[in-house]
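To fix ideas, we now present one chain and its tokenised fold:
***
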Amino acid sequence: MNTKTILALTTAAALCCSGCVGTGPNTQNGAVAGGALGALAGAIIGNNSGGHNALGGAAIGAVAGALVGGTLGNSVDHQNGTIYRSEYEATSNVAVASVPPQPPPPSELQTAQPTPSAVWIYGFYDFDGYRYQWVPGHWEIPPPNSAAFVRPHWRYRGGSYVYVRGYWR
């Protein structure tokens, strides 16, 4: 098989595996990138082995790379708190009698849109139960069936305020 055919097949395999580990944007991007890199490495290893099996190596590398890349991306999604799909999922266990004041946001510049489907998430302060931490603005590809990112906010419930992390709806 020629190189173009192998690359087309491995790219297709990586895209098929792009949502296997989770639904966050970093999960999908990690799976695609990992699948492509794994396919390339697998093709090289397979071709250089005694059997000259570049296609088999590419297929195995694509699947392994997509799983590893997706898992790493999923970890980033959880750290960023960007894969919640409802206010209920995004509600934290932080409850306070009064909302702590936020420091003023730093100035930030919006970078060029990397893909037409990417959505700019403006920077925001995340509250960890003790202090606010700035999360810089960034581009994200919305999870499937999501159109808007709801910024983190405080919600009054049952006599106290609870912190709701940002989520997609």
